[in-house]
Amino acid sequence: MSQMPQLSACPSCEWPLESGDRFCGACGYDLSAVPVRPDDNPTIVMNGSVPPPAMGAPGMDRPGAAAPDGSGGHGLPPGTPPLPPSPPPGSPASADPGLPGGFPAPGHHAPPVFPTVPAPGGPGAPTGPQTSPATAGPPAPTGSPVSPASGVRFDHPPEPEEYPLQAPDPRVVTDLPTPPEGTKVCVACRAGRVDHDGYCENCGHAQPRERDHMELDAGLVAAVSDRGLRHHRNEDAFAVACTALPDGRPAVVAIVCDGVSSATRPDDASMAASRAASESLLAALPRGTHPQQAMHDAIVAAANAVNALAAEPATAREQGPHQNAPACTIVGSVVTPELLIVGWVGDSRVYWVPVDRSTPPARLTEDDSWAAQMVAAGLMNEAEAYADERAHAITGWLGADAYELEPHTASFKPDRPGVVVVCTDGLWNYAEAADEMAEAVPLDAAARPLHSAQVLVGHALDGGGHDNVTVAVLPFPAPPMGAGSA
What we know:
It is an enzyme of class 3 (hydrolase). The chain is of the alpha+beta class. Helix content is 18%, strand content 15%. It has helices at residues 133-136, 266-284, 291-309, 313-318, 370-376, 382-387, 425-428, 434-440, 449-463, and strands at residues 213-217, 222-226, 236-244, 250-259, 327-335, 340-345, 349-354, 362-363, 398-399, 408-412, 418-423, 469-476.
């Protein structure tokens, strides 16, 4: 019996081996076929194959003959049994005398049988010299190291340079069926239907999310919200609407909310707050509730809506051990023919920009932030406070973990026409002072609120777009019902 080579890994699949293993436990590789590494004069060439000896060597005049040194021939290690001789023509190569019917006896392995392919010169009669099936075997792929004993490849088959697409290429496929009317169509290939997961069924292109960029023109007020250039989603939300007071005069409403990114589900919090506040105002103002009281009640309704998110199963699934409950800021404005009402919690702002730019603009809100507290306490001036890294840490927000809800409201009676700019810090970070905001607001903002909101969002994106950007523009005084933007 030949000595088993001591291997640490299978030469075929690199599976770890243990002492005494005869076969690989992963791929079944016959470890007894691995040549023993000689002490010197190695016969393994660089590609891992064993070079056969010259046919003129003694005892090697026919295939399968044993070498004089006791090896099995063809350079096999000593102790390896010689290959059986080729069967004579016409004899069944697979027959074995061990059992009737040609079945091999137990413990005896018959050599493989390969079908004979007739030569083109005659039916069924080969014309050239025949090679023993026991020694021929299938040819090894060019350039691939193959074990001479088992024919197992030691490398992987070549991989194609390009893999076929799972879906048709929209650039070359033109006979796609037209989706039914009302089906959301891919923005990339303009042909595939968008699945519920937000990807095109035809080209696989991810579709823009609805909240990445939102615009709404309500005639007397308009708003635009954008994800920005750095955030992976838009956590802002807004609601704009028009209603009528009991005497028929118009009332224009704008609510803007900014989700707290460090909290759970900030995008859901801002959406819930903006909807709840808008619905509260649209219900209270036609009943005759004073606009300032209606704004206070709307902020309370928004806070209740955000608090309810903390008890939802979705929050429990997404909330990590060190995260806060859903939270957001809120700012809003109500414009009537005589009054300008603002309300807020957090650091979103309202600016007043008069049509006559010779008169000064103004900021109508005070931030619930660390910087504002330092300035109010006289510990820092405004430049020093807002230059500090803690400047934008908010001290007031809507959420179940808020310290105490303190809605801020204020009422103004401007003596001249102008526009009201309601925005998140994604805009005012690039136009913080009232004069800077007035410079960014187009001169025709009162007549074109949607265009003005688009310009202001573009101003923030041009400045870097580090945060979500949301802005609503309301002309003052509120124009008569039915008048809209150009």
